[in-house]
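During data preparation, a discrete fold description was generated, and the record follows.
___
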Amino acid sequence: MILTAAEIQDILPHRYPFLLVDRIVELEPMKRAVGIKCVTVNEQFFQGHFPGRPVMPGVLLLEAMAQVGGIAMLYPEEYRGKIALFAGMDRVKFRKQVTPGDQITLVAEIIKLRGLIGKVWAESFVEGQIVAEAEFLFALSSS
């Protein structure tokens, strides 16, 4: 299943400049999602991170990964309108910098869901090389 940016906005509450997923290219609701983020030099955060040597902030890379996990969790109709809030992060590793011109492939897999609490394992790749990985704990909340 493929989702466009407009369809992603039907699921996630995030909007510019904080929506960090351009497209979903694979989706198995409540199991797994694969998203794409095209990084351009026009990203607002590059103005200050870092002038003359732009690098995507790691925290925004984690947020993009989490948004893909959120799409997998929030796609079913019974979860629409809820917000996936961070409850924790574990096993976070940054392996490579992300810079303008990179296309990030974001892979998120739901490894546990109990009630309104979920655990997601996510990885991000540029040109097939892993750039970051993390385990996220989410709490689903009504908006």
User: Anything to note?
Assistant: The helical segments are 5-9, 58-74. The longest strand covers residues 129-142. The chain has one domain: 5-142.
